[in-house]
Amino acid sequence: MATKIFIIVDGSEIRVSIPFDYKDVCRDIRGRRWDDASKQWIWPIGKAREVADALRMVGCIVKNVGPTAASSPSTPSSTDWAEALFRQVGCGEGQKVYRRLSATLHPDVGGDGRLQQQLNDGWRRCCGGGR
């Protein structure tokens, strides 16, 4: 089964959480930085297509969350990425996605509380999730 990777648009950057097995793919793409707090690779938004193509070449299923980076210069509001995520995957699959992202984003595990709150808000609005 192919690994699903979500490219999250966050303002002028993209953020990608990947399994450890794919770290070398990310290291080969210039302009990246590692955010230890959120455990995510970060690139300027203009690199979204290159990142997605590289991950697809190694067999990943890549989903963009938010506007398509290469075609949209606008900056999404802080919760657009989470709403777009749950609309894309649907509420059934969304619960699994919510749990997996929470395992990385939640402040109790060293994640980014702001991103976790955006995830929570998007989950509530799209799927009526209570948590």
Q: How would a textbook summarize the main sheet?
A: 5 strands, mixed
- What's the architecture, going by CATH? 3-Layer(aba) Sandwich
Helix content percent band: 40-55%
Gyration radius, in Å: 14 Å
CATH class: Alpha Beta
Low-confidence stretches: 68-76
**Biggest β-sheet: strands ordered side by side in the sheet:** 3-4-2-1-5
The domain count comes to: 1
Order of helices and strands: EEHEEHEHH
CATH fold name: MutS, DNA mismatch repair protein, domain I
The total of beta strands comes to 5
Q: How would you classify the helix and strand content by structural class?
A: alpha+beta
Mean pLDDT: 81
Would you give an account of this structure?
The chain is an alpha+beta fold and 131 residues long. It has one domain (4-127): MutS, DNA mismatch repair protein, domain I (3-Layer(aba) Sandwich). Helix content is 43%, strand content 18%. The chain is built from four helices and five strands. The chain has helices at residues 23-27, 48-57, 80-105, 113-127, and strands at residues 4-10, 13-16, 33-35, 40-44, 61-65. A five-stranded mixed β-sheet has the order 3-4-2-1-5. The longest helix is centred in the C-terminal third of the chain and has 26 residues, at 80-105. The protein is globular, with a radius of gyration of 14 Å. Residues 68-76 have low confidence and may be disordered.
